[in-house]
Design a protein that fits this description.
The complex is a heterodimer. Chain A is mainly beta. In chain A, 0% of the residues lie in helices and 54% in strands. Chain A has strands at 5-7, 10-13, 19-24, 31-38, 42-50, 53-57, 64-68, 74-78, 87-94, 102-103, 107-111. In chain A, the strands form two sheets. In chain A, strands 2, 4, 5, 6, 9, 10 and 11 form a seven-stranded mixed β-sheet that branches. Chain A has a four-stranded antiparallel β-sheet with strand order 1-3-8-7, with no helix packed on it. In chain A, strand 9 and strand 10 (102-103) form a beta hairpin. Chain A is globular and about 40 Å long. Helix content of chain B is 0%, strand content 56%. Chain B is built from no helices and eleven strands. Chain B has strands spanning 4-6, 9-13, 18-23, 30-36, 43-49, 54-56, 60-65, 70-75, 84-91, 95-97, 101-106. In chain B, 37% of the residues are buried. The model of chain B has no long low-confidence stretch (mean pLDDT 88). Classes of the chains: A mainly beta, B mainly beta. Chain A binds chain B through residues 4, 33, 35, 41-45, 48, 55-56, 58, 90, 97-106, and chain B through 2, 29-30, 32, 34, 40-44, 47, 55, 87, 89, 91, 93-100.
Amino acid sequence: KAGVTQTPRYLIKTRGQQVTLSCSPISGHRSVSWYQQTPGQGLQFLFEYFSETQRNKGNFPGRFSGRQFSNSRSEMNVSTLELGDSALYLCASSLDFAGELFFGEGSRLTVL
Amino acid sequence: QQPVQSPQAVILREGEDAVINCSSSKALYSVHWYRQKHGEAPVFLMILLKGGEQKGHDKISASFNEKKQQSSLYLTASQLSYSGTYFCGTYGNQFYFGTGTSLTVIP
């Protein structure tokens, strides 16, 4: 059974640019959530999607957005990048809202 | 609403035991535990549900005190493979994760 796949794994951007990250969940999982991981803040919740609907959004500015497609694949977008957006972005899928999370290996974003 | 974990870091010798604590200011209905090795994705260890049901790892145990809004993860007879950062997570419309406990097991 394939795990959660995130692309790209590494990327470098400059301030003001935008970035799109992709996540393919485990087959059959309809819930996808995104997290920002930084050394000082740990894992911070970004959004959660279920059946193409955003269920919740964390305390992040509007520059952070996401969506989920009919095949459960999800994307997140960060516009007008800032230095502080440098982080590991993790995607997780699960069968239901509060169930066991299966994480991808993450996309490491560096903003210069 | 971020859970508080303690200790922040611990170093053990193989075979020693460790306890990692997680406390929340909000009522807990379930607690998750994950372990993340350096450069890898977090991996699910255990979920504890209100009412005492526990699902997860064979060699690691945990407790869940609903009244005190606390959970503890018990690692007994630690192995080198236990090294990593341990996170607790609580769900209340979204997941809130603790800041993590770095555990290092040395020979």
